[in-house]
């Protein structure tokens, strides 16, 4: 099967680089000192009978984190990082993720609990593994790398070749070529990426096979790692032979099931090998890789890319390893695994030749400079073994004073990093914070998620056959289309609310300055707000809190409102405090008070210093990707200071409240304060009623209330509704400046999937 | 009860002018010659047991058109005009609306069928009227004018006076003052607005009381009109006296029910007069007015305004007529009714004094110049009786050669006018055509409708307790919020449709020119469309119908697309014709072919002449308020001509098709051709399935189909879906250039109110 020429002739370089990538990563939950915990899999991670991302491998302590398949490695790595952040932030305070493949600080074997899965067969299989291999060997962790070529590539190659008549046979041959060549040359990847040079002595029941101060490249890939008995040999020459030999070992009882065959390459896409005869191999799983402790997620993006280039190379080269070649490859793997990682490998020349060919391939297919650079960096490591991952790990183990200590140090750093950015998903921080929070909950609880459009915050969620779409965190099928259209239009909103009997400030609309001013008599002496019909930024609004007393002031305010819209409204002004009620279904889930930007004096610091100190709060940033915004000290703030007889250099008295803004928007540095528990229930019920009148499932209701402790009465002096908002903000409730956090995104998940066990 | 001073002192001039106005207008359905029909009330007008706008009065032939209450007379008149347009366009081809109060060409009395209402009591009441008055008298028609002062005014006046302790008593006294003063001075309105100077002789069983060539001001308001027996006198001095006297006549059997009391002022707001003691009079109904034949709707806006000023004047003047005053007023009414309309009235001095006081009032309350002008015009009519409506009607009757002929001529003109603008509601032509069409259907079938926001095309519809909101003709609660959000995003739409198994052209998105060009190899040789991710105007789109063959052309097209959006798409180009499927629920209701702007030669006319001829089509206009758009002859059209070797001055051969545009948009002069019956059912089913996949209730699906007669197959060469649109256009289906009209708005009504009997 020679494909290089076909790829060249048909200019398939780009298609050849397309593929689907998925990563599974095992690791141990550990204590602060790096020793493996004996606690149960955390309940926060929902139910393992369906969880697509967070599973347990062999043991209850052994997390298995699984990315969905992605078209790019970048996306796969973003998923991997995200799942890590979800897990690290959900673990108990005293638990961490161990960053290396070989477990350290193992408890006595009888205290290791196999994963307590719902299916009794799954538990029984693990108990069998304990019997066959001992529990410790099963505790070894690693990275499994799943790869599928673009089906379009396979179709195109099949059409361009004339060796195979059947598409399925061609596809099987293609993937088998990849599998065999991979097994033949896998030692190259081991040399470059192995990272299990040692382990603490208690890992070995019968004493360590390592001499004092001996390091190897990979204990995990050596005979002391996680391998089948040496006699278990399965042929990759063809699918019929593969099926025959694999079924032989199962039928003879040497393997309890096909999945007990631990090859570094697994054929995937069917439950039983025999099915490949009909359906073809769908993708391959490469299981060779040690965790890279320098990477919080266990694997570096450049290394993942290098593995992809290596996979392509195994197809690009004209040779296809035969059975003997595979055996040679497996033998070399064992030899290279046992080499000193700080020394050159005995097979360096073969490695260098292979990587030179890889560079040649990358240039031919137009993979770009950065790809060539990655390959060149790896090529250089044959001459300089101290650059290999294994050698670097040895250095750090020695510096840290031991394997477990090195791992524990890194585990604490990685967890702290995840906690520091608790309000976001670092890899998806281009998306809105509320969507990030929802994604966190979705990943934690185990709904299948597809990001349909990142820029548009569009998600597809699935549980079983039940599919829901979500845009902007809470726009879903649970709302009817007419609800946001009503809420978008303030006039219509007021009419609908008034008709339903809620306290709505009276208002009149005008389409010309003249018309508004002619109606001045209707408003004289009344407290009114004059505002454009449509604006969400507070522009063009004038408030006559004490009542409008002359026609000229009124006309001026009308004129200002007309600058923003071609229709304006004059409405009753309500005295009291504005609260935002977040309603979902039949319940007010959160009540928030928004306070204009402010600082409190300490008798020593200047206003500028107080602002700087307040701005240091971790939640404050530019406001687009942080829950709160830094207080500015621009013209508006300085004018506000001036009205209080202050400048930025004034030193306010201890306890003196200094206003920096008149408006309470969070987007201009305001504080968000949760008042859910303080608010009298009668107002919460009103907000629910208002939401129902809007026909909405999710609604942000703004009420003006003079006294939140007094029960609501049926009069505008007791309360009034000033706005109902669709797609209401959630971040300010989830991460308020003060008061209790309300995890509204989880309520959205529960609304969408009431059947989900959480 | 003196209110003038209170209004002045409290500057209530504007509030005094506020009110609520409703008009009921009776008229006879007639034949082309003006003779009254004997056909049943048309089934098109739905069910009279609930219809709020289109009822029958006494006889089956006697339409009663009812506007809802409005805050301005302008809106009331818009409603009245609209209901007329609905009725005129729904009548059988040979039926018209007679524009005058006295019926002409009456059938024999025994052929007049009383209104066949569902409630047997209503029918029995009418049969009683026939017995008491004869059927002919009941056939007389007129305008009833309903008026309510602003409740805010009444509250303010009540607070400012000290004559009444109870708000209900004050309100009753206010409306009774209005009623009594109206009855005292109503002759003034009769003098100015009466329009029943004569009638054909057969109206009178015992011969006409009119001498040859005698005309009077108002037969309808004379003893020969529609009046109670002379002894039926009811006191308006107070509500208790009103109740006592009215109940006396009912109890004594002189009246069969309170509603048989035909005063020119009726107290309204309760089923029985006795209830006014508790609830107060809510509004008054003034029943004095003859139909104005010069007005298609029976009343002129300026006259309606004048009546309003007259009503205000009846409150403004300090006097309140007593029982004797009311009797004087009724006597004068009878006298003035019998005067020659071309002669001055004997009471001219009283009339002029009253109108001078009205002008004084209008100036005091700031009603504006136009109001004063209306009053001045009427004032002048006391000196010049030939300007009165009655005198003008006499002139026209003489010109037409008879009463019936005059009425029949106008009836035909008014109907033709309504038919000429069949695609719109003239009074609401500021709104979208599709919303106008929906409003037409809603009014025809008798749903209660409130226009919540005209600019926003926002309607509130109600049947019984069932309320639905509609925006832009078909945006309703029947669609879920996520559906339009999915359809708004082409990428998400394609993903969802592909996942559901529909034939979707493959496409790739790019965010940079470089990235797109680097992937050129994927597209080489393929027929592709390159377009911005979001655009609805066809901008930035390039099509390589024969396949893209070089990188430079590809790069140029990509660059053009990036001018319109920051993301672009490259997708498969489908060969075939694009059809728009309009789907509602489980059914494809319409299929439309859009053909680029074109003309067909006749061997004689130039292109410019052919275009002018085609543009003369009644449906073609500027496109914003017409179903089709005129073909332009701008740069693009001339370029298109040039490609065919033509200019605007060329004379195409007979039958030669001349393309004026490449794109098929209706908005650039394209033709809309209904293909619903031609399209193979399998494609209609596909469109329904696509709609369901979008989760939508109403959807416009664009399919590309090479052969609409061949059943759909599961391949892109048989069909492909290129777009799914929320809030799809309806006008092009309702009023296509060619083919059958599909009344989709009626289907929307049926969807919203499946319980509505239509």
Automatic annotation (TrEMBL), chains A, B:
Molecular function as annotated in GO: ATP binding; glutamate-cysteine ligase activity; glutathione synthase activity; metal ion binding
Annotated catalysed reactions: L-cysteine + L-glutamate + ATP = gamma-L-glutamyl-L-cysteine + ADP + phosphate + H(+); gamma-L-glutamyl-L-cysteine + glycine + ATP = glutathione + ADP + phosphate + H(+)
Gene3D superfamilies (UniProt xref): 3.30.590.20, ATP-grasp fold, B domain
EC number, as in UniProt: 6.3.2.2, 6.3.2.3
Residue ranges, annotated region (Glutamate--cysteine ligase): 1-337
Record's subunit section: Monomer.
SUPFAM superfamilies from the UniProt entry: Glutamine synthetase/guanido kinase (SSF55931), Glutathione synthetase ATP-binding domain-like (SSF56059)
Cited Pfam families: ATP-grasp_6, Glu_cys_ligase
NCBIfam families listed in its UniProt record: glu_cys_lig_rel, PRK02471.1
Stretches assigned to the ATP-grasp domain: 494-757
Protein's name in the database: Glutathione biosynthesis bifunctional protein GshAB
